[in-house]
Amino acid sequence: MDHPLAAPETLVRPWRTAAYVAAGIAAFELVLLLVIGGAALLDATASRLRLEARDHALAPAASRSSAERKPATQVRRPAAVAQQSRSGTIVLVLNGNGRTGAAAGAAARVKGKGYRIGRVGNASRTDFGRSLVMYRPGFEGEGRRLARDLGVRQVGPLDGMRVPSLGRAHLVYILGSS
Q1: Do 146 and 104 form a contact (C-beta atoms < 8 A)?
Q2: Contact (CB, 8 A) for 118 and 90
Q3: In this predicted structure, what is the pLDDT of residue 31?
Q4: Pairing of strands 132-135, 154-157
Q5: Mean pLDDT of the chain
């Protein structure tokens, strides 16, 4: 044996010191990130509150007093009015219930109400519980009219579909199981 091993009590353990230094640096960075994030959150909140206070102060007294009397949940915006005729409105009819031929029957019903049919097909899912009407931006009035004509209660903007996938259609009617 050329070199005898040193006794265990004389071995230097630099890894332990390095671990303590690394843990200290990580703790310092964590505290620093929390302080910076908290300051950014407070700044954003303060900016939003300043804007709301300014808007409230600049609002006319008549509208401010009426807005203070009504809770925000009761304020209603005016109903959208259809700008196009039924014959000028194109509807994409999709089967969302999985029953064979349901979309074709629904399309005939929509056409019977005076609308033009753009395309008939299957929805991406077949588990729609209720029928719904979705409208392209700018066609809310037409969407609400179609829903009234068909007795559909759920009406809203496009959700889960992109405008290019509609083709020429202005509205989407997804047939549900009830």
Answers
A1: no
A2: yes
A3: 93
A4: parallel
A5: 82
SS3 labels along 57-90 = HHCCHHHHHHHHHCCHHHCCCCCCCCCCCHHHCE
pTM, entire model: 0.56
- Cα–Cα distance list, 178 to 97, 130, 151 (Å): 9, 5, 11
> What confidence tens digit (pLDDT) does each residue in 63-88 have?
545 545 555 555 666 677 878 899 99
Q: Which two tokens stand for residue 35?
A: 């302080």
**Please, which pLDDT band fits residue 15 given cuts at 50, 70 and 90?**
confident
Q: State the Cα–Cα distance between residues 93 and 74, nearest whole angstrom.
A: 34
In sign, the C-alpha dihedral spanning 177, 102, 113, 76 is: positive
Q: What is the CATH number of domain 86-175?
A: 3.30.70
